[in-house]
Amino acid sequence: MKSRLVHTEDLSPEDKEAMYSLLSIYFEGVKRDVFETDLSQKNWVILLKDEKTNRLQGFSTLLMYNTEFQGEKLSVVYSGDTIMDPSGWSSSALSRCWISSVNQLRRDYAQGRLYWLLISGGYRTYRFLPIFWREFYPRYDAVTPIYISSLIEFLAGDRFGEYYDTKAGVVRFPHPHVLRDCLRGIPQERLQDPHIRFFEECNPGHLQGAELVCLTEICEENLTDAGKRMWFANSPMKQQQQFPAEWGLEKNTPQAKPAIATF
């Protein structure tokens, strides 16, 4: 499987159509206008395609932006639509590409510490956290630190507004993407995993499309051994790629600060 990190403005009409089609196969409630609007609000997309057929097997949309919290400048990667065809679930391609891509974005554009704002509508997405990251929140075996709790509330409130339930820690969109019956629900045997059991307890509305808001810091020190293997994989983005000035993206150099979108 081949992977590629591209700017949303570089997506071809064929790529967009394939993304929409793949999302519609496995999710109910996917509306074309909502998909297009969501995509327009992201600045990066990870594409995974079959090496032989070039057919889209999966993708993940990303928004990287700068913000300020309690007087500290931070950068945030927010994950949007993410899907992998079940035929590729045994492959590490998506996780490898995602982590190595974000590592390159961190090196090139991050302003201060970089956090991953993840909303989990299914246990497979939430399980990504303990596999690759040492510290993340919320979690079953530790109380969320006050600073992280406040940061989650700040970022989620800013990003999701009235759709964010502060008390429950979940987002309920008016037109949620709900997994189709073939993928919906948690197999009983998977509930033996304390992380998955915690996810279900914290997000009982996941079957109706509710999303649990999660946060982890993206840095080498926070990686598990599995995460480190992905971290040092070759990035799928061209090393010498140049960006139009209107994108507001400048690489980090001693003379230049990163200038990505700020909210």
Describe it.
- The protein has 263 residues and is of the alpha+beta class.
- The chain has a domain at 63-240.
- The chain is built from seven helices and ten strands.
- It has helices at 13-26, 32-40, 93-109, 123-132, 146-160, 194-202, 225-231; strands at residues 2-7, 27-28, 44-49, 56-69, 72-84, 113-120, 164-165, 170-171, 178-179, 211-217.
- The strands form two sheets. It has an eight-stranded mixed β-sheet with strand order 1-3-4-5-6-10-8-7, sandwiched between helices. Strands 2-9 form a two-stranded antiparallel sheet.
- Strand 7 and strand 8 form a beta hairpin.
- It is globular, with a radius of gyration of 18 Å.
Brief summary of the model shown:
The protein is of the alpha+beta class and 263 residues long.
Descriptors:
alpha+beta, 263 residues, disordered C terminus
Rg measurement, Å: 18 Å
Approximate strand percentage = 15-25%
Mean pLDDT: 87
Distance between the termini: 35 Å
Helicity range: 25-40%
What structural class do helix, strand and pairing data support? alpha+beta
SSE layout and pairing:
Layout: E1 2-7, H1 13-26, E2 27-28, H2 32-40, E3 44-49, E4 56-69, E5 72-84, H3 93-109, E6 113-120, H4 123-132, H5 146-160, E7 164-165, E8 170-171, E9 178-179, H6 194-202, E10 211-217, H7 225-231
Parallel strand pairs: 5-6
Antiparallel strand pairs: 1-3, 2-9, 3-4, 4-5, 6-10, 7-8, 8-10
Helix pairs in contact: 3-7, 4-6
